[in-house]
Amino acid sequence: MKILVFLLGFSLFNFCCNPPSEKINYSSSLEHPVEKMKGISLVAPARPFTNNPMEPLNTIGADWITVMPFAFSPVGEPQVHFNSSRQWWGERPEGTIETIRLAKKSNIKVILKPQVWMHNGWVGEMTFDKEEDWQKWESEYTDFILTFAAVADSMNVEVFCIGTEFKLAVQEREKYWRGLIRAIKKIYKGKLTYASNWDEYPLVPFWDELDFVGVDTYFPLVESKTPTVEELKKAWQPILKKLRRFHQKTGKPIVFTEYGYMSIDGCAHKNWELEDKRTEIPVNQQAQANAIEAVFEVFWKEDWWGGGFLWKWYPNYKGEGQGRRAKFRAADYTPQGKMAEEVLKKWFLDESK
Q: How far is CA 306 from CA 45, 123, 168, 346, 348, in A?
C-alpha cells in the first residue's frame, strides 16, 4: 500500500512541516435547504455476501449507506494495521469495493468512512509524547486513508470521510490534518467530511476545508428507562440551538455521521456506559423507537440538517440467532425486526417529508 503514496509523490513530512497560511473564512448561511440523507451505517461482513444486502435497505427507503473499512491501532503504539488477511472481508479493500458496487447498482449513495479501532481504548484519547511517534502513526494513517481515497475516486463515491472521533489528535496536530486533506483532494474529487464525536465538533479546527460538518450524535438526553418522545424532544432543544448556531458560524450543513440507540432500558442517556453490559439490561424496543422518532421530529424541519446515518445495520440479517448472540442482537443498536424499523420506514418512505 505504501507504494501508492510514493507514486503520488506525496511527502508526509512536507505537509507536516509546512502548514497552510490561509485563515478560516466562514459564510453565514446556505442558499438552499440541504437534501436529507436517509442513511444507514452498514456493518462490514466477515465473509462475502450471499445475497444482495441492499434490497432490505431499498425496502425501508434508505438512500445512503456508510461503508466502513477498518484499521487497528494498539493502545500507546504508533501503528495502523489494515488490509490484513485476518480481518473481515468487508473491512478490506476487496469487500469495500464490492459493497460500493452493490450500493450503486441499487441506487444507494455512499459515504466511505475508513475507521481506526483501538482495542481496550478509544481513538479520541490517542496521543503521543514523542514527535517521532506522532510522525510514524501519521505516516501509517496517511497510507490507510489514501488507499481508500483512491478506492472512493475509482468507484465515484459521493462522500469520503477523512477520520472518525480523533478528539485529541485533531486539536494537537492541526497541521497534519490540513496536509492530509490536501493530499486526499489530489486523489479524490468528491465531497469530504470528518466524523466528530458529539462533544468534539466545536473543537475541530479544519471544518473550513470540508464540505459539511459530521457529528457522531450520542448526546446524553434522558436517564429514564423509557422516555417519551416529548421528553426526548425537550432534552434535544439546547443541543439543537447549539448545533444551529454552529451551522451559522461555519456556513456548513451538519450531518449526523452516526446516531443510534440500543434497544434496552435507558438507551437515551450515556450509551457508552451501557454497551459492555447490554445483554444484562432488559430489552426495551419502545425506548429505542421513541429515541429515533425524536431525532426526526426535532431535526427534519431544519434546513441546515443534512440527515444522518443510523448505527447500525447487519447485511443479510436472518433474525437474532440463538443463545448469547440472540441476547446481543435483541439489545443491540440495529433496528432490524424491531419497532424502530417501522419508525425508519415512516420517515424514509414518506414523500411529503
A: 27, 26, 26, 18, 13
In this structure, the dihedral spanned by the alpha carbons of residues 267, 70, 133 and 147, taken in order and rounded to 10 degrees, is: -140
Beta carbons of 123 and 163 less than 8 angstroms apart: no
Name the band, by pLDDT with cuts 50, 70 and 90, for residue 324: confident
CB-hemisphere CA count at 13 Å for 205?
16
Measured N-to-C along each axis, helices 174-187 and 131-154 cross at an angle, to the nearest 10 degrees, of 20
Q: How far apart are CA 263 and CA 282, in angstroms?
A: 9
Interacting residues of 114 by C-beta distance below 8 A, sequence separation 6+? 68, 69, 70, 71, 144, 145, 148, 161
Does residue 334 register a pLDDT over 60?
yes
Q: Tens of pLDDT along 253-300?
A: 999 999 999 999 999 999 999 999 999 999 999 999 999 999 999 999
Give the SS3 label for residue 130. Answer: coil
User: What is the distance between the alpha carbons of residues 22 and 10, in angstroms, rounded to a whole number?
Assistant: 21
Grid coordinates given for 163: 477520520
Q: What is the CATH number of domain 30-349?
A: 3.20.20.80
Q: Encode 92-108: b = buried (16+ Cβ within 10 Å), e = exposed.
A: beebbebbbebbbebeb
Four-point Cα dihedral 117, 122, 123, 126, nearest 10:
-130
> Are 96 and 104 in contact, with CB atoms under 8 Å apart?
no
- 244-274: string of b/e by CB count within 10 Å (b at 16+)? bebbeebbbbbbbbbbbbbbbbbbbbebeeb
State phi, psi for 260 to the nearest 5 degrees.
165, 170
The answer to whether residue 192 scores a pLDDT higher than 70 is yes
Q: In sequence order, what are the beta bridge partners of 160?
A: 112, 192
Measured CA to CA, the distance from residue 268 to residue 57 in angstroms comes to 25
Per residue in 53-111, pLDDT (tens digit) is: 999 999 999 999 999 999 999 999 999 999 999 999 999 999 999 999 999 999 999 99
